[in-house]
Specification:
- This protein has 17 helices and 21 strands.
- With 557 residues, it is of the alpha/beta class.
- It folds into 3 domains: 111 residues, Beta Barrel (Elongation Factor Tu (Ef-tu), domain 3); 173 residues, Rossmann fold (3-Layer(aba) Sandwich); 187 residues, P-loop containing nucleotide triphosphate hydrolases (Rossmann fold, 3-Layer(aba) Sandwich), CATH 3.40.50.300.
- Strand 9, helix 7 and strand 10 form a beta-alpha-beta unit.
- Helix 1 runs antiparallel to helix 3, helix 1 packs antiparallel against helix 8 and helix 5 crosses helix 6.
- The protein is globular, with a radius of gyration of 25 Å.
- The C terminus is likely disordered.
């Protein structure tokens, strides 16, 4: 990576941030009709380290499903009591303000979205109670944008102080999947606390910070303060016994030029915009970046801004510039069977990963209550649909792609694992395509099976004993779309602990060299089945395209 001056870097990123901000506003304008979500009520409320978490469900006639909306995870929202919804309706068609609104109104961030539920995190405790109807409106996140711009401008003007001293104390913890990155971060925090030092921990998402805080609380319970920017949280692990932590966080930041913290930790740094990291980085003389740049990058809507560098995280850039001088890679992973681990290790991590003895040979059948069957036995199992005419079908309305036959095969294998005794919470279904997930969910719902189903993005940071991966793409042109995104496939594969089940058209996915290496690994170290073995499980839609084979060749999985 080419070295640039601080001023040139700031000028470039200010332009890229403006591109991204325009794209965000354009998306809101196009989806204005979905900015408002009404006819929902609070179904669960719990305290968090920084405030409160609320879970909302529909109160309408179709209570199993939320009304149509366009609110997504990490969106900033305004939540009102239902009595205030008339005001919300008037402003739903235009960009909402982040300025305080009189009345029972709370600003929060969406942490999770499913078809049935919306989970919101607030930096304060609301007066809402379970059963109370509310309305939720997505807002334009002007505050975070302005703060990132300000942080970059201050970076360009810095002449001394912590921001320059920090350059001599930069450290990056590269934590591939399952290597205990968060546990290591927590230990670093606790060791600094034992030395009487102050530590600031932050991340781009509430979930990432809460994950660290959960582990800290389990270790010894720690106090925390909340900074002014809603997307950044911090944690005060000093030995100061002053309990007055309810004021603005700026009260904790001295203005005498000294760093208010001894260490800043940016968790999941590889998923954060670099400009956001500079909100916290100047607050200490030492900076620890924790993450994995081989997993999902920061989410950037503007393709032009991403291609020009906005999607490159602070961690990835520093690793490219300084390499081993600032990076320590965790090499022992405690999640995956060695056969699952070997491919990402070779493809993404220079063959440096090793499986801990406790997990290197663990299998599904070793779990309590799980029988050893033809379905639970394999660690790697690939079902090949090549030549079976189970082709992809585009969905023009959703702008997504599905594969009916693959959905049927995934559900058939899920049923087989559950019948063999696998707990439903130990099973997960992943696909890069949302339309495919809709098909799988619908089939599982018909069978009354509440299996975790999600996109690659939704499963980052999670793990399951068995992961069923549907790659969807099957066409004569060999087009694989964004399956070619290496980091996305890496995340999907490394969610599995004891079994990785992949259904795909090997003829199509082999057109990409990276995907071909995955198929080769599955074939060499796992079990391969033809999709025709699942013919009896295919739905009516898929049967219409099925090329029936001779009855003597047909079998069941």
């Amino acid at each position: 990576m080419e070295l640039v001056t601080c001023q040139d870097f700031v000028r470039l990123h200010l332009r890229l941030l403006e591109m991204e901000h325009r794209q965000q506003r354009e998306r809101q304008r196009q989806q204005a009709s979905g900015n408002l979500l009404s006819s929902v009520a609070v179904t669960a409320a719990s305290r968090t380290f920084c405030g409160q978490r609320l879970v909302l469900r529909s109160t309408g006639p179709r209570a199993r499903k939320l009304p149509r909306h366009s609110i997504r995870a990490n969106d900033h929202v305004i939540t009102r009591r239902a009595s205030d919804s008339v005001v919300a309706r008037r402003t739903a068609g235009r960009t909402a303000s982040r300025e305080p609104v009189p009345g029972d109104v709370w600003c929060g961030v969406v942490s999770r979205v499913t078809k049935a539920e919306l989970t919101l995190d607030f930096g304060e405790v609301t007066s809402l109670v379970v059963g109370e109807p509310v309305s939720v409106m997505r807002t334009d996140d002007e505050m975070t944008h302005k703060n990132m711009v300000k942080a970059l401008e201050e970076l360009a003007e810095a002449k001394g102080g912590p921001i320059l001293r920090m350059r001599a104390a930069l450290f990056a913890e590269h934590g591939p999947p399952g290597t205990g990155k968060t546990a290591t971060v927590v230990e670093v925090i606790l060791q600094h606390q034992r030395l009487g030092q102050r530590v600031l921990v932050c991340a781009a998402s509430h979930n990432a910070v809460d994950n660290v805080l959960d582990r800290l609380e389990a270790a010894r319970g720690e106090r925390m303060v909340r900074v002014a920017v809603e997307t950044v949280k911090d944690i005060d692990v000093s030995d100061d016994d002053d309990d007055d932590d309810d004021g603005d966080a700026s009260e904790h930041f001295p203005t005498d030029g000294k760093a208010p913290f001894d260490l800043v930790v940016i968790e999941e740094c590889s998923q954060a915009l670099e400009a956001a990291c500079w909100l916290a980085a100047p607050l200490a003389n030492k900076l620890l970046l924790a993450g994995d740049h081989s997993q999902l990058p920061p989410m950037v809507l503007s393709r032009e801004a991403a291609e020009k560098g906005l999607a490159v995280s602070l961690m990835e850039r520093q690793m490219a510039l300084h390499g081993a001088a600032v990076v320590r890679m965790l090499r022992t992973q405690y999640r995956m069977h060695e056969h699952i681990q070997r491919w990402p290790s070779e493809a993404m991590y220079g063959s440096l990963l090793e499986a801990a003895p406790a997990v290197c040979r663990h299998r599904l059948s070793q779990l309590p209550g799980v029988r050893d069957t033809t379905e639970t036995g394999p660690v790697l199992l690939v079902v090949d649909t090549a030549g079976c005419r189970l082709e992809e079908t585009p969905d023009s309305k959703m702008g997504s792609i599905a594969n009916e036959g693959e959905a049927d095969i995934v559900v058939a294998h899920a049923r087989a694992l559950l019948r063999a005794g696998l707990d439903i919470g130990q099973l997960g279904v992943i696909s890069p395509y949302k339309r495919q997930l809709d098909l799988v969910r619908a089939r599982l719902r018909q069978l009354r099976l509440d299996v975790a189903v999600g996109t690659v993005d939704g499963f980052q940071g999670r793990e399951k004993e068995a992961v069923l991966l549907s790659l969807v793409r099957s066409n004569q042109r060999g087009q694989v779309g964004f399956l070619a995104e290496r980091r996305r496939i890496n995340v999907a594969v490394t969610r599995a602990r004891r079994q990785l089940f992949v259904v795909c058209d090997t003829a199509t996915v082999r057109s990409d060299a990276f995907l071909a290496s995955l198929v080769d690994h599955l074939v060499e170290h796992g079990e391969v089945r033809s999709a025709h073995a699942y013919r009896n499980y295919l739905g009516v839609a898929a049967r219409g395209r099925w090329r029936w084979l001779d009855a003597t060749e047909a079998g069941e999985p």
